[in-house]
Amino acid sequence: MKKPELLVPAGSLDVLKTAVNYGADAVFIGGEAFGLRAKAKNFGPDEMAEGILYAHEHGAKVHVTANILAHNYDLDGARQYFKELKELKPDALIIADPGMFMMAREICPEIDIHVSTQANNTNYDTFNFWYKLGAKRVVAARELSLREIKEIREHIPDDKEIECFIHGAMCISYSGRCLLSNYFTGRDANRGACTHPCRWKYAVVEEQRPGVYLPVYENERGTFIFNSKDLNMIGHIPELMDAGIDSFKIEGRMKTALYVATVARTYRKAIDDYMESKEKYLANMDWYNEEISKCTYRQFSTGFYYGKPDETSQVYDNNTYINEYIYLGTVEKDDEKPDYVVFEQKNKFSVGEEIEIMKPTGENVFIKVLDINDSEGNFQESAPHSRQELHVKFSQKPCPGDILRRKNTEI
What we know:
single chain; TIM Barrel; globular; 7-stranded antiparallel beta sheet; 8-stranded parallel beta barrel
């Protein structure tokens, strides 16, 4: 039984390191241009070089997105970008546009190319087409069932890799080809600037009655008719592996370190447990489900894997995430004072509060906040200011790289 790659997103250098530390076999990232998450922090050349080095030193790979659908005026910049990537030496490039594909093959033929899901890869002849052009891997369209993926596996060469999304947000449009953002705001989803209008609330207006909003909504806040549930396949690892999928891909290059760490750690354990024995995997199912719900999500579904989604695959009454746990920060280093650690605070917490250490090993440790100091050594009763450097003493000292979180008491 071949062990699948666990491929995890990272929108910044800190999140890349978190993904690697919490179990990713590979991380996919974007540069400052030519990827489909323009609003993510993304990576400049120096950060990308540091991220690739960090991943390689820890036995992980880095895949770089260049998956926009390019216009003529993009091509000169893309050519220069591929020349920079040639020097940085990532493990793979993720590309959707045939022109960008040919350019990458010409400039950096030594780097593997993975064909993006944006290319709408829905059948085995398409997979074989890209294989003959030299693509190492094809990312399957999210609209495929497990049965279809298994059939693709049976009709392509053994060394042709299949990558599939197995967790995260689902786009309302076919393989992400959405025009709503461009229409409403002028920001093109197919060039990395989606404003996510699928999450906005809508009403219906009849043509002859402008300004009259018809009462078709599910509750007093409006109707969210495009709002898909999130994909979650943590309970279906055996079926995913049986289908012949080589890489399990997590969505979310704009997510926090807490989200990335939670999802990476949970799927890492689930995959490893199943590789050891099916019985161990099934015995730990409650733990997987409990942990996966500790990151933000919109309610879960299995997407298209078991057939086309129906009316139960949408969230109609709100556009908000379920957020059971709050991210406090990632421990950066030990402090000069014994028993203290240093980290950048992300959300508020207070002295006397019980919080949780989330360790890469899978262990969760409950501790108490004993003392909070600012960078000048001044005592603080609480930490209300985001991105403040804190020097904190807990009842048990966490280690550098540990995630700190607390239960959200407001839900």
